[in-house]
Amino acid sequence: MRRLIVLLVLGLLLGAVLVNQLEQQPGYVYISLGDVVLETTVWFAVFIWLLTWGLLVLALSLLRRLWGTHRAVSGWLGQRKSRNATALTNRGLINFIEGNWARARKQLLRSARYSEAPLINHLIAARASFRLGDIEEAKHQLGTAESVEAEAGIAVELTQAELQLSGGNYEQALATLVRARSNAAKHPYVLALLARAHRQLGDWQALRPLLPELHKYGLLEDAGLRGLEGELWEALVVSVAGQSDATVADLESLWRDIPLAQRELVTLRRVFLQALSDMGAQDELQRHLVAWLAKQWQVELLDFLGRSPPTNPRKLLKTMKKWLDTHGQDPLLLLAAARVALYAKEWDAAQQWLETAYERDASAEICCELARFIDARGEQARAAELRAEAAALSVGPLPELPLPNSLSEE
Question: Of 103, 350, 356, 385, whose Cβ has the fewest other Cβ atoms within 10 Å?
Fold first, then answer.
């Protein structure tokens, strides 16, 4: 309160001094601008100058406030558009996931302008266009996606390759992925798509060098590439065996290059043994098979024994008798042992094993083999019954149909 009184008193004193000065020394200001002459006192000129300066400051303040209000309104409108774009983008993504391709594309493109991540809008719109069969629009959206974000080249190429693979355009996909291959160290998914393209094209030789990197990034565990390595080695084994100038040494060399974990798989071993059989390499086939079964019992491989004459049937039969001591209940082993016994001309042992195999599992193959053996021994009636049983096992039971009693009956 005291301060206010002091200020008020000082103001009155200052005003009195000014009024006194104005009365005693008013001063004189003369301004001439062409034909215009302005004459006034100094104090009035000062007052006009202060008034003008105050009005100018006030005007600038008002402009600043108006500009701030405009920016605030613009920011609010921009935020509102961004929020609406985000909501519309979310609805577009939901519709895409639910399979509403047309609606999803429409919503994604409407919200792309104000979206915080327009790249996503255009990439998903491209996928939606592809689902709708609009390939040209899909290409257009991919081009737009690359233009809105210059560093999105890999993402665009990956999307394009995925669409090409989905559409069965494997050669085009391969060309796209080769362009993106230089960045594979940063984007391992390029390798996965590249492997899929080679797989679909059956280009196993081109796929083989990619295996180390596919293992490095753990890509072979992906659902889309599961079983790829096994398919690769199987195809290469078949390819080598099918070459007219290939030798058994070539096939053996390829086999040594295959990782041990793959070489222990029954499916790949069967392919390899079949390749040896097709090349007439029975000694190598028997050597590999006996060594494998000595370490790991795989009954699925036994049918390769006895289908071709072994070099030393009695020596092989001696090995098989040891197997029978531990796996004598297995019908496939009994059948294979019986065939080797036939090559060794041990008829009684062969018949005993065939009969036991028939008792264990009367498959069509065992029935036929036993029928052939006992037919050679003069048991034609039982042989005929066994062949009929084999036929029934192969094609299933025949329907009951009326049959003629004789050839002359109509």
Answer: 385
Domain count, the chain: 2
| CATH number, position 111 | 1.25.40.10
Burial of 364 (0-12, 13-18, 19+ CB in 10 A): middle
Say if residue 214 is in the same domain as residue 175. yes
Residue 409 CA to its chain's centroid (Å):
67
* Within a domain: 46: yes
36 pairs with which residues across the strands? Answer: 33
Beta bridge partners of 31: 38
End-to-end CA distance of the chain: 139
Beta-carbon-side half-sphere exposure of residue 38 (alpha carbons within 13 Å): 9
127, part of any domain: yes
Cross-strand pairs, 38: 31
- Domain span including residue 62: 38-148
The 10s digit of each residue's pLDDT in 164-198 is 888 888 898 888 888 888 766 667 888 888 999 99
Given a contact cutoff of 8 angstroms between Cβ atoms, the answer to whether 268 and 258 are in contact is yes
| 123 is a domain residue | yes
Q: How far is 128 from 253, CA to CA, in rounded Å?
A: 49
pLDDT in tens, 61-73: 777 777 655 554 4
**Nearest in space to 288 (alpha carbons), one of 254, 252, 240:** 252
Write down the pTM of the prediction. Answer: 0.68
Model pLDDT for residues 377-388, shown as the tens digit of each residue: 999 999 999 998
Q: Check if the beta carbon of residue 164 is closer than 8 Å to that of residue 176.
A: yes
Residue pLDDT, tens place only, 281-335: 999 999 999 999 999 999 999 999 988 888 899 999 999 999 999 988 899 999 9
Distance separating alpha carbons of residues 401 and 228, to the nearest angstrom:
49
Which neighbouring-strand residues pair with 29? Answer: 40
